[in-house]
Amino acid sequence: MRNQFPKIFLYFLGLILLLNLIQATATQLIFDEAYYWYYAKDLSWGYFDHPPMVAFLIALGQVFFDGELGVRMMSCLLGVGTMSVIWLLVDDPKKREFIPHFFVLLTSMPLLHAYGFLTLPDTPLLFFTALFFLAYRNFLAAPGAGKAVLLGLVMAALMYSKYHAFLVIVFVYLSNPGLIRDRYAWLAVLVSLLAYSPHFLWLYENRFVSVNYHLFERPNRPYEFFDFTLGYFVNLVAIFGLTFYWIYRAALKTRAKDLLTRAMLFVSLGILLFFFLSSFQRRVQTQWIIVICIPMAVLAFRYMLEHEGTRKWIFRMGLVNIAILMFLRIGLVFEPLFPVVYETHGNRTWVQKITSQAGDIPVVFENSYRMAPMFEFYSGNPSFSLNNAWYRENQYSIDSSEARMRHKRVLYVSRFMPGGDISFTMPDSTLFYGLYIDPFKSYRKLRTEITTLPETGAGTRFSFDVRNPYDFEVPLSELKFGLEFLDGYKQIQKVIPVEARPEKDQTLLPPGESIRMDALFPKESVEDAAFVKVVISENGLRWGLNGKRKAIQ
Predict the structure, then answer these.
(1) Contact (Cβ atoms closer than 8 angstroms) between residue 117 and residue 79
(2) Cα–Cα distance, 230 to 253 (Å, whole number)
(3) Does the CA dihedral 350-355-360-362 come out positive or negative?
(4) 397 in helix, strand or coil?
(5) Are the beta carbons of 80 and 74 closer than 8 angstroms?
(6) What is the DSSP secondary structure assignment for residue 520, as one 8-state letter?
(7) Taking each helix axis from N to C terminus, what angle separates 7-26 and 99-107, rounded to the nearest 10 degrees?
(8) Spans of the chain below 70 pLDDT
(9) CATH 2.60.40: does it fit domain 447-551?
(10) R_g (Cα) of the chain, nearest Å
């Protein structure tokens, strides 16, 4: 190890690890971390939004620690692991003379900095991207079955981290067309597919819910240059902070003298181009492009070793970046220092406001897969996100959490109600009300699909199927049906109630079966409606997310 990692390198690494462990312990969770903690309560080969790696890491960390540190322990280890692998990827003996410059470069990158202690899918994505490049370099040096198997396993781990990993793998293979004729490269692909097969099976068993959501079901909105494309370029600056100019310049000045460098350039520029084109269709989030930090860190540090001017500027501006980031990190814990109210502020407080009024009864949050797991993490009480037509599906839509609430007295919490039995405010001053419901009965997993939709629409009859996935009968008397109209961007416009009756005389929806319903298409027109689907309100709850979309002819 001493040959690979000089003593001063290990001192820097240990200091960063210690800092991240302290930060991980002292900082309250952000909402996404609470959501992934909720994943980890029921380990599976897949989840609604992401592959399972983030849940596996949290579950492993909680074997050793409770609370926030248990959620984040593995991220702290992977954070320094990522830095160590990047160091190994730089093949230049001069790097030992500029170890402080190396750490300034890496720790000045805002998201690479943050994912050193926050537990999000991007944390393992960064680590396994770095490890993938290292495995690929070793594979290129001496192709063989053993290295192909290792490369395949790392590829699978990369894909288990986040679906965006597919772009990294594709661009690496595109950078080296000769791999198409390499039997060991095909062995690596086969191993990765075999290792990833449990997730493929999970997707199949869950109706490819993740793929459908990310590719087809996610709502969009009309193109806006300033928010979409200009916003994308703002993200390109934000991902590196004040050092962005010199880092991008280093990448553009680098020539592909070997296959590894060529792969890094392909990944960096390929992902930048891919999401630039995507920005003409939807808003690109900053973390979607974070994976370029790995190859560009290697390319930038190599360039720094050869160009003194760039080295000085990245070091100077990097220190400014670090100073700003450290101030913000302190502000994550001490709220008055942070410029805005952030997700790590006041979570224990608002949770305590609820429990002080409602005790330990289960809490149902309307349209908040963020608040529900945060409440459960800090209170220990069961919670559930009841998703309706104005929201989106999430892990609460497909797991068994609904059953924990059914037929029980619950507190129903929403910011959309005019009043309630209790009230509380969030740290951002948003007012919420809570209403006691006893008993609570929801059937959000009921599915509907329109079978016949007349061309003329208004005033004519149509039919739809209702499928009951539960293992118990559902009384039809507890259900009301409506037609949800959506525009071409899948944004909800309006829900109109419809009178519906079963084609066969029955009052119960049998478990595991479907029935056909007959209804009258409403005469009321909805301007610019492109899609329609049938939604259900059970026992007076707001319309659900039950239907499969059908294009209006």
Answers:
(1) yes
(2) 24
(3) negative
(4) helix
(5) no
(6) E
(7) 20
(8) 1-2, 455-458
(9) yes
(10) 26
User: What pLDDT is stored for residue 2 in this prediction?
Assistant: 56
pLDDT value at position 339? 86
The DSSP letter of residue 443 is: -
Predicted local distance difference test score (pLDDT) of residue 455 = 67
Q: Report how far residue 262's alpha carbon sits from residue 136's, in angstroms, rounded to the nearest whole number.
A: 12
| Length in residues, the chain | 553
What crossing angle do the helices spanning 293-306 and 244-253 adopt, rounded to 10°?
A: 80
As a whole number of angstroms, the distance between CA 485 and CA 479 comes to 19
- As a whole number of angstroms, the distance between CA 72 and CA 33 comes to 9
Residue by residue, DSSP assigns 458-513 as TTSEEEEEEE--SSS-EEGGGEEEEEEEE-TT--EEEEEEE-EEESSS-SEE-TT-
Sign of the four-CA dihedral 540, 542, 547, 552 = positive
Contact yes or no for 264/133 (Cβ under 8 A): yes
Cα end-to-end span (Å), the chain: 67
Nearest to 495 by CA among 442, 547, 446, 418: 547
Alpha-carbon distance of 512 to 533, in angstroms, equals 21
Query: What pLDDT score does 502 carry?
Result: 94
Q: Is 263 left (phi over 0), alpha (psi -120 to 50) or beta?
A: alpha
From 349, 366, 358, select the one nearest 544 (Cα to Cα): 366
Structure tokens at 543: 């319309």
- Domain borders along the chain are 7-335, 347-440, 447-551
The pair phi, psi for residue 496, each rounded to 5°, is: -115, 125
Name the DSSP class of 5. S
Number of Cβ within 10 Å of residue 471's Cβ equals 8
